[in-house]
Structures are given as C-alpha cells and as structure tokens.
Specification:
Elements (H helix, E strand, L loop, with lengths): L2 H37 E2 L4 E2 L3 E4 L4 E3 L12 E2 L3 E5 L3 E8 L7 H12 L5 E2 L10 E9 L3 H13 L9 E9 L5 E8 L15 E4 H8 L11 H17 L14 E6 H12 L18 H13 L3 E5 L3 E6 L5 H17 L8 H6 L1
Parallel strand pairs: 7-9, 9-10
Antiparallel strand pairs: 1-2, 3-6, 4-5, 4-8, 6-7, 10-11, 11-12, 13-15, 14-15
Amino acid sequence: MEYNELEKQINECEKQIRDRIDDYYDTIHAILGFCSLWFFDTSTQKNRPNIKVFQGRRLSKITNIVNADNLSNEVCPDLGIVVQDDSGILGEVKKNFPKDGDERRKTIFNQLKSYDHELDWWPTPDGKLKSHNIVLLIHQTTSRRAQDYYYEKNNKGEIKFTRSFSICQFNRSDQRVPYFFFQVVSGKINNTLGNVDLDNGVQVPMEPLSKLYAKSKLYDAEPPLSYLLHLIWEHVVIPILSEDENFGRLRKNQNIELKLKVDDIVERLNEGFSFIHWHRNYPEHQPRIPQKEWIQKACNLLVKVGKAKWISNGEELTISFTKIGNIVDYFIRLEAEDQAKTIIKPMFPLDNNELNKK
C-alpha cells in the first residue's frame, strides 16, 4: 500500500475532525446566543438579575410510576432558562438532523420527550417550576427536515407534547458584522419577557458571544480529542511552563518536561472553560466538565505519539513540551494521523517521524 493512500486517508480524517470541531463550536455559540436573548438586557447592556441560565444540569422527573425498564429518571438538557422562578425553557441543540435512519431521528425526539414531565432540581428556591417550554434548536440547513419529521409523526399521533414545544432554527452569518441568527419555525415559545421576537427572527452579534465563548469552550458533550488537546496545551501546559526561567530560552527543537496530574488538568479547564460561571450561585446537580475520562483519552494520544509518558497510569504523566507553531492545526493533524492508521494498515511500517516528514 503506497504512502499517498495513507496521506489521502489522513486528509479525509482531518476534514472530518475540522467539521466536528466546527459543529462543537457552533453548538456552544447556539447555547450562548439563545440563552443571552433572555439573560442579557441590550438596553442596559447588563445581565437580568431575575434570569437564571444553566447548561447540562441534571433534573429529575417527578413521578409515582415505578420504572419497570430501569431507565434513569434524570434528564440533562443542553440548556435551561428560568424566568423569575416561575417559568422556564429547556432546549436541546442539534447541529444536524439526520436525513435518514428513523432510529436516530426518533432518539432525538425521545430525548426531547424526556423533558416533557414535571421536573425537580430546577435552580429555584423549592426546586420546582410551574411551567416550562421545550425547544429543539436545529441548524437552518436541516431545520426543514426536522419539521417534516415532527409533523409526520405528530399527525400519526406518534409524537405528542403536553407542554409547549417548538423548533427554532439557527445559523451563523460571517458577514461584515457577524452574527448568530435564531428563528422559531414551528410552535411558539411562551416567555414572560415578551420582547424576544423569535417569530420574525433575532440576530445576536458575534462580538459579545465571542467574549462569552472565551470562558465557555466546553459543554457536557465530549469534544474531538484535538480540540481538547489544544485547550490543554495552550491553557494548561504553556501557562505553567511560562513560569519556568528556561521557558523563554527554549529553542524550536528543544524540549522541557512537565509533570501533570489528570485531576489538575480537569480542575483548570473546569474553572476556566466550562459553564461553571453560570452556576456559581446554584452549583447543585451540575456535572463537572470536562469529564476525567475525556482528559485521560486525550493524554493517551499524547503518550501514543511520544509526547508524554504515564507516571501513574491514568492519573499522572510527564509531558515533553516543544514549541509548536499553529497549535490547533498540529493537534488536528495528530488526531487525523492516529485515526487514519487505524483505518489503513500500510504494507510497510511508517513511524511517526517518517509520517511528519512527508
């Protein structure tokens, strides 16, 4: 098998990884943008004190029915909004709605249906809420597909919501003044503010969203390994090493070692890049993001390619730091090479050094 076949597969894997990173990026911005419609007051340029927002919070179904299937009574929506401890919104963000595969499409609506219950553990004084809306946020390019599926199943009586349900499409516009666009295309979102005109569509400028994204780069879905490695390298490894007097004198081909505990990486990223700043006043039932398993998988890839060694398996490692030009591109390439080599097995051995020379 010739090298160019492997390179072709690497390029394909790299394209898929970049698409997944873009999807992850857009999902976070959709969460930030949609919630900001309620919690940010454009007239005062301040957050509204009567609005609470959350991401990934575990809510519990209030039911007296014994769960014969042993299914969890907990639900973890992508986003939640509480208005004046009275009414709320639960939303699920999907960048793409499947074109086919009824089971995959059914899974999405089953997830939304799991929010159609009286729920406990809201961030309110008694953990309860009188009413809440359910929203599917879907990218504009596949929103029609989601609508058609919902209408078909609703007409057959296969999908029914007792609470208000709506489909809201979103899109990112990279015009001269970039913005995120939201518009309800099915149903209606009942809200007590009355000034969020989603029926006609709302543009949310990207500039304030970018400021929010600066401290909210991770949500409760696992990102691509290269996305996570970039955060670890740039926002954990480099800041720690920058305190070393030898760091500034480090040449391109030189390396410096750093011991890191996985728990410390988790803590730094949780504090710096999760949605923790939304939940400081109501941290109960909030997951710790990133999950430790995600960091262990990312570190395993560093070990696999010779950039690190485990000291205590899965708990502590030594990272061999070298200066990298474009950190994002470097780790995307690293992940793509690893994926490609599991797909194509060359007829002749290619080690990592040979691969990087090509």
